[in-house]
Amino acid sequence: MENSGNCIGSTFRNLRQRRLLEIKQVSGNLHVSTVSHFEHKDSDIRIFTLMSILRETMTDPQEFLEIVDLQAGYFETLIHRIEHAYDCLNLESLLQMRAEFPFSPLTSAPKTLINLILEVVISDVRHVSFTFSSEKLNFIIPYLLHNGPWYKLEYIVFGNVCHALPTKVNDQIVSHMLKVYDDWHLPEYTTNLVIVIFNLAGDRMNQGKLAT
Prior knowledge:
This protein starts with 7 loop residues before the first helix and ends in a 6-residue tail after the last helix. The protein contains 12 helices and no strands. The chain is an all-alpha fold. The longest helix has 18 residues, at 189-206.
């Protein structure tokens, strides 16, 4: 984990000092010079090493990453930008963001997923209902049905793009989503799961399918 420019080391030092801890109290099996060099940004640090020294400060890695505003913070900020533009019905801002994230499944899956979210949001602002093109369905369906756990991004994507997916496809993805949720999840994913179910229920109500 390269800390230059991100002030990770100095952030950890401030945290350690706030907890009234000496370097030797957090270093564990590490040499105190390793932690000292990290705090003064003279060296990089492995993620497992960071988790080890954070444990002694009673700080979760997620909280620490949010404090230093790494990529985890970037995603949250991006989603908030989209939500704010949607709430304000700011079509121009949404179109500008979509230009930042063009649909290109051969380059970056995460950025392509953001493009699909924006397409649905933009259509909603324009009061236009639609289903994704075959090209986009051929990307999003295999992605969401791919083996492995879902993380926050997958729940947020499905919760937004479900409005532009065929009903049978949504049923298939929901079944898969619940399975992977049972297999593995973090507590915070519960909120994301509920939002997905809420959005899907809203679609079914609009279709008059109350029993479903």
